[in-house]
Amino acid sequence: MGAITLLDQATIDKIAAGEVVERPSSVVKELVENAIDAGSTAVTVEIKDGGISFIRISDNGCGIDPSDIKTAFLRHSTSKIRSVEDLLTISSLGFRGEALSSISAVSMVELLTKTKDSVCGIRYVIEGGIEKSMEEAASPDGTTFFVRNLFYNTPARKKFLKSSMTEAGYIHELMIRLALSHPEVSFKFINNGQTKLHSSGNHSLKDVIYQVYGRDISNNLVEIDAEENGIHIKGYIGKPSVFRGNRNFETYFVNGRYIKSNIIAKGIEDAYKGYLMQHQYPFCVLQFEMNGSDLDVNVHPTKMELRFSNQQALYDFVFRTVREGLDRKEYIPQVTVDEPKKAVVKPVTVPVQKPVTPTVPVQKSPTPAASAQKESASVVLLQKPTVPVTPVQKQATTQERNLDYFLAQMRERVKADYTSRENKSPYQQKFEQKPLQPVSDKVIKEERVPYGTPKAVEEPKKVPEQPKQEEKPVAVLEPQQMELFDRKLLAEESIKEHKIIGQLFETYWLVEFDEKLFIIDQHAAHEKVLYERTLKGLKSKEHTSQLLSPPMVLSLTMQEEALLKKYMQQFTDLGYEIEHFGGMEYQICAVPGNLYNINKKELFIEILDNLSELSGRNNPDLILEKIASMSCKAAVKGNMKLSRMEMESLIKELLTLDNPYQCPHGRPTIISMSKYEIEKKFKRIV
Fold this sequence. Notes:
Elements: H1 9-20, H2 24-37, E1 42-48, E2 54-59, H3 69-72, H4 99-105, E3 108-114, E4 121-127, E5 130-137, E6 142-148, H5 155-159, H6 164-181, E7 186-191, E8 194-198, H7 205-213, H8 215-218, E9 221-228, E10 231-238, E11 243-244, E12 250-254, E13 257-258, H9 262-271, E14 281-282, E15 284-289, E16 295-296, E17 307-308, H10 311-327, H11 369-382, H12 394-422, H13 426-432, H14 441-447, H15 467-470, H16 481-486, E18 499-504, E19 508-513, E20 516-521, H17 522-539, E21 545-555, H18 558-566, H19 568-574, E22 577-582, E23 585-592, H20 600-611, H21 621-634, H22 644-655, E24 670-674, H23 675-681
């Protein structure tokens, strides 16, 4: 073993840089977080070649005082904390004081900064941890970093970087998380001269979600806002129709800091159980605000992990808040039928003569030229030549039809107005020809009617009687769509309006309600009813059992016997009565009362086999999964004919459930199709 010596400062800086600066996205993260801590409202990030050759980060924050610039690039220099006690109440994103030192040790850094009180800015250059120059320079308020040639002096680290496109993708994901965590800041991300992200910074989290994820996700969100025991949760969770195959769309922040937490993730995913199928993960963007004394942020060098003082209370609060948000809505997915694909016909070049518009003789009249042009145009439109319409002329043809209808309506209104005037009595005509008397503005407003509407003239003796009626403002009928959308299929007041059409394929029931067609999967619906019924019995300690005669005898291995003894209480709560029969045999004298027409022996063995996958961990949620599998096996199957009374009874029992829209495995029990969509497919609506 060699002698123990102290490492030189350059080696120390490069070792420290390896812990903080892993790739270009690490540089962007540290510098943008410093910009946010500096009170910036606009941050611009520009990169080239994935950030390997060039990174520019500009902000409009408070800037760095000239006397603090050199100190800022030393290790463990920070303005965020002063003592260890400050770690208990830390609210800033950065606090270690290693970012600038580590970045400058493995790259060429140029700094431009200016405080609001300074007359001019400062330009500072440091390369490989060695100061090159410091001079006055023109600069706007705020700070701008130029980071060039990352890892130029550590080729071993640079060799392990991925392609420029992949590294740019990491930075893009980072900028998305920063924009979601701070909607009050406008972020702009430029990659090789192209703007990839530009948030508005208007404090609206939903606007940022729309800009990042698009309209489909932003239209299927549920807002969350709850507070308990000093923990405030706000943000948005996705409806069950929005899911992914991994956890990449589960985004949550604690005091503005993006983190990864198994406790929070488990609370969110457990709340979605019953709404999503296995291996499906929800979409969420949640912001947690809590007291810094309940956190330990000094856990990981990248500050991606936190410790919570009361993890169980946090889990319960997250689970309850997300589940309440999901239970507030009615989640019946609306389906659409795709348009049938038309056969592609190759165009054939055939010489076609230019269509000639037939001329219609129109007699001259003393009307103005504009009226003649309108009349002639209407005649041409109404008497269109019979020429085949090509696909290119489809849009123009639709517009002509609309114009034909509009002109026809206008002619009818003018004709009605002219006819009403001709049919007036001489006394009425004489009354209209009298000179107008000065009237008040109020009367003028009351007499105003839309153009083209026939206006009846009252008798003089009836005029004084009208003001009481005419003084009332004209009521404008606005569409009351909110009442329409608030009506639910599965509600007590809606049962009388259900119109059960019949059973399709002996599996699906068709129900008409509120100008929609609802399709109910009888197996999934019955499965959900049995699941909730069994779960309710477990919670209330009310379970029913059916005795077996003779009892069912099973031979178990040592592992299966150990699992049975470990979970004996759960089996008893479900309705099983199990006794030791000698040796490795056990007899089952009773089984749960809702297991009809099921191979009870196979089901019991299946439960034990699934229990063995826990590897000794006591997971209480496993029992719920077993209840789901039991309900699935006991529910009515597809291709099984049910009577109308049985279907009505099943719908009434669905009303009593907290979540009747998904089966225990996450599949939908009901889907809908609107009348508008059906009429559109039959071309009744163009």
